[in-house]
Structures are given as structure tokens and as C-alpha cells.
Amino acid sequence: MLEAPPADTLKGARDRAILATLLYHGLRREELCRLLVKDIQSREGVMHFRIFGKGDKIRYVPVHAAAQRLIEEYLGVAGHGLDVGGPLFRPVKNNRTPEKLNRPLDPASVYRNIVRHYALLVGVSGDVLGLCVHSLRATAAKACFS
Hints:
single chain, mainly alpha, hpI Integrase, Chain A, 3-stranded antiparallel beta sheet, 6 helices, 46% helix, 11% strand, globular
């Protein structure tokens, strides 16, 4: 599924980074959408996400090398890597108000337009297997303990 988004477009670079972040780190989609550029930080020489979770709890999660590479590629193409106070993952187009791209993604669209879209593209049926963003969270949890 990580290979499904095209690597040569802004949307594809963003979607690859989002899928890797969900898959490798077990974030909830709301947590993913709340990430700011400054929430990727070095702690003792290791890159971490600063995650604002349920109950306004903050946790630090080491960034997987593949996810870090994909995020860096995305920021390079998107050009907002220096906007440290802005959202990390943003819409790539807005037909109604094109000037309003400096906002976070909607959590519902992460499922509908990214996770479900690419799962169906590679032949994974959400109806049969119960695929959802939480499935990626469960996959990340299982990978940590295997």
C-alpha cells in the first residue's frame, strides 16, 4: 500500500508520508492531522514525533527511518518545511478556496481519500477485511511486539 501513491506528484508524496506515519507509528487519524512541522524534533540525536493524544496527553514516538525519509521528501516538494508552526500534512488543492491550503487535513478525509482509496487501489477490500485507519494502528502495534 505504501507503494500505491505516485512518487512524482505532491499528493503522492504527501500520501506516502501519511501512510508510512500511520503504519509505522500507530497514530490515530486525529493525532496525525494535529501534527505540526515543529512536532518532528530531535531528542538525544533521534528524531521523534511529539504527539498530542487523547486527554491532551503528550507522548514522544521515535520516527521510523522510512517514514522520516518520506516526510522529508514530501516537505521538500511541498515547500512548507520552514513553517514550523503550521500543519505538517496539508491539503494539496482546494477548488472552492485555493488560498486556504495552510490548514490541517480533516481526519475523515484521511480515511476516505487516502487509506481507503489506496487500499482499494491495491485490491484490499474494506468490506471484507474491515480495513480502517485503526487497522494500520493495530498493524503498527503488532509490528512493535513481533
